Amino acid sequence: MEMELKPAEEIVGVDTRYLWTLPLPGAGSPAADAGVGSVWYFALPLTSAHRGGHSGGGALIPGVDGQERYRNEGTVYPHAGLVEMITYQRRCFPELAWRYVDMSHVPWAEVRAAIEADPPDVAAFSVYTSTALWAFIVAAEIKRVNPKAVVVFGNDHAGILHREVLTGMYGSRLVDFVSTGNNGPFTMMGLLYTLRGQLDLARVPSVAYRRGGQVVNQGAPTYPIDRRLLPDYRLIERELERHYDKAFEVWYAQHYTLKRMVTMPLDGGCTWGKRPGRRCKHCSIQGLTPKTTRVATAIPVLEDVVGGLGANVYAAGDSTLGFSREQWSGEIGFLDELAEACAASPVLRRHRFMLAYGLVFEFLQSAELCKDFIRTWNVGLEAFDPKLLKGDSKGINKGPDRVHEALELAQSLDYKLYISGIMGLPGTTLALLRSEVDNWLAMAETYRDSITTVSVAAPGVIPGSRMYWDSYRSHPGMRSAHGEIIPARRLTEQYIRENTEVELADVEAAIAEVGRGVIALGEERGHMKFGGYMLGGADEDEAAERRLLDDICNRI
Ligand code: B12
Ligand code: SF4
Asked: Which three-class secondary structure state does DSSP give residue 158?
């Protein structure tokens, strides 16, 4: 698969031009470190949001008490992609020092001091659209202190925009390599072997870089996930204790018996993704081909995580609840096998430990099958009025009656619910906005004993989505905003203006009203939390972050 701006179908396969066998056969343990003495892996905070750097965090909403717990608690979930790479690094380079730094928890001053004291030789960043600014800031500081350091950007934002990053005002100076596929460990370990002089760069998959004034991209299909190691969270147990457990305590402790949650790439893609034109318009995930791990491999890892670390498991797939034999083409029996294996495991059969995504339709099909191991159903309801879903494949949620039926079923089978939605979809009027607010509040009130989170956001125009691609092609204004850092809030404002009868300000007022209601209801009973997408771009913090970046760059 090649990550590009134009939504594309993800290809799964093995391209034999590249190195996939890790550790590299015959590499042995080289005596010299060849300039690579330490590798740091960075997870980043949302732009301008030191508060609520967590999914569904966000700025404080005026006019309601009980938001103290939303302040600066950092994310609940360690970063799966980074722990996946660290797991491989321990296998391939057991002697090579590494650090895992999650800046939603570790403050900038502390990170800056650590870089000053002993900068890394290689820095790997997981870059989302909403965290790109911080990726550049930290990369700049590392290059300032250690100009020889090698900077690698990865994840969807960087991969989709690899050209923009490698040739951009900041990226051309700060970023050496960009990962362009869903092959993190192979890209990163390949690069480490290359930097140590043990592998030709041409054999590293899914990597883009500058050469002779050009951008070279060694695009590769996604290596099958049933042949990969799963992330080993024991490697960051100290960070779990120091940071993530506290965040979990604040947000979720009242809802769960296991008091942690870690993300596991057990499956990926969705059954809607085969043809990119059919995908939900706002979905920015490129890797959409349905794929699953091997259940026999996953079970011992899950036993360690649940039984050993005492953690819940966030299934990173986009459509996990869709993967039962009774649905779609009937080809994928992942959940059927998993249910059977969990029931047979002395550790797992005692817990409902998993959080899984699924459409309403998918939940209705698999709720009964999964009721002994899935604890939480994570559902994107998007909107209540079917008119708003037209032209966006989420219409497959099939309107309010099916939603109601699914929520009732969830409650009767004692599922927890993490519910998200979008306000300001094409066709929105002021009257519709009002009725959406009322519907969200009515739902929150009815199901508050099951709901952990209600998260409602404006339609973020982010690269990777069909919405972004359509706007990019049809709007000169959009093209001028396009680049290595995306002004997502400004683009969203424009998108709402052009496709609805309301303004972003109306949408944000409606979201705040839902927020106030949800928080107040949760305070009364149920402990629901509220969150919305922090688009950034609106406050002084972000302007200060931009100045910080320029200031560091001027000193390199
Ligand atoms: C789990 C998840 C979360 C979790 C946990 C994230 C975490 N800390 O790990 C939570 C709930 C916290 C979360 C939050 C948010 N998320 Co989220 N999340 C996901 C989800 C479902 C799975 C990600 C995952 O763990 N996959 C498994 C791991 C192993 O793979 P991966 O991360 O995809 O990375 C692969 C490659 O990209 C590559 N790679 C990744 N990083 C790097 C770095 C280097 C150096 C290299 C070489 C390679 C590499 O290697 C991996 C494969 O081997 C994805 C959707 C999806 N299925 O991809 C959305 C997704 C990543 N999230 C998204 C968004 C928007 C958010 C939020 C901004 C939501 C919000 N608040 O409004 C926040 C941001 C939080 C933050 N501070 O960064 C978007 C990102 C879009 C974009 N263009 O940036 C996605 C793609 C979903 C979408 N809307 O389309 N998210
Ligand atoms: S939003 Fe979900 S169902 Fe829609 S295309 Fe994306 S992953 Fe598939």
From this structure: helix
Domain locations along the chain = 38-225
182 lines ligand 1 (CB under 6 A): yes
DSSP string, 188-222: HHHHHHHHTTSS-GGG-SSEEEEETTEEEEE--PB
Calculate ∠ Cα 56-62-63, nearest 5°. Answer: 120
Other Cβ atoms within 10 Å of 168 Cβ, number: 17
Q: DSSP letter string over 456-518?
A: EE-----TTSHHHHHHHHH-HHHHHH-SSS--HHHHHHHHHHHHSSS-HHHHHHHHHHHHHHH
What are 493's two structure tokens? 């404002």
Any ligand 1 atom below 6 A from CB of 184: yes
Per the DSSP assignment, residues forming a β-bridge with 99 are 40
Q: Measure 502 CA to ligand 2 centroid, in angstroms.
A: 26
318 lines ligand 1 (CB under 6 A): yes
Residue 352 Cα to ligand 2 midpoint, Å, equals 25
Q: Per residue in 70-81, pLDDT tens?
A: 666 678 899 999
With the most atoms of ligand 2 within 8 angstroms of its CB, the residue from 280, 379, 420 to mutate is 280
The answer to whether 97 and 121 have CB atoms below 8 angstroms apart is no
Q: How confident is the model at residue 271 (pLDDT cuts 50, 70, 90)?
A: confident
pTM: 0.95
555 burial type by CB count under 10 A (0-12 exposed, 13-18 middle, 19+ buried): exposed
Which protein residues are within 6 Å of ligand 2, measured from CB? 270, 272-273, 279-280, 283, 285, 318-319, 359, 393
As a whole number of angstroms, the distance between CA 105 and CA 343 comes to 36
Measured from the alpha carbon of residue 87, the closest ligand is: 1
Q: Report pLDDT digits (tens) over 293-328.
A: 999 999 999 999 999 999 999 999 988 999 999 887
Count other Cβ atoms within 10 Å, centred on residue 207.
29
Distance of CA 3 to the CA centre of its chain: 16
Burial classification of residue 146, based on how many CB atoms lie within 10 Å of its CB (0-12 exposed, 13-18 middle, 19 or more buried): middle
Q: What is the mean pLDDT of residues 361-390?
A: 91
Protein residue closest via CA to atom 6 of ligand 1: 79
Q: In a 3-state reduction of DSSP, which class is residue 332?
A: coil
Longest dimension (CA), the chain: 70
Kindly state the DSSP code that residue 61 receives in the 8-state scheme. P
Query: Which listed CATH number (3.30.70, 1.20.1070, 3.90.1150, 3.40.50) goes with 38-225?
Result: 3.40.50
User: With contact defined as beta carbons under 8 Å apart, do 314 and 244 qualify?
Assistant: no
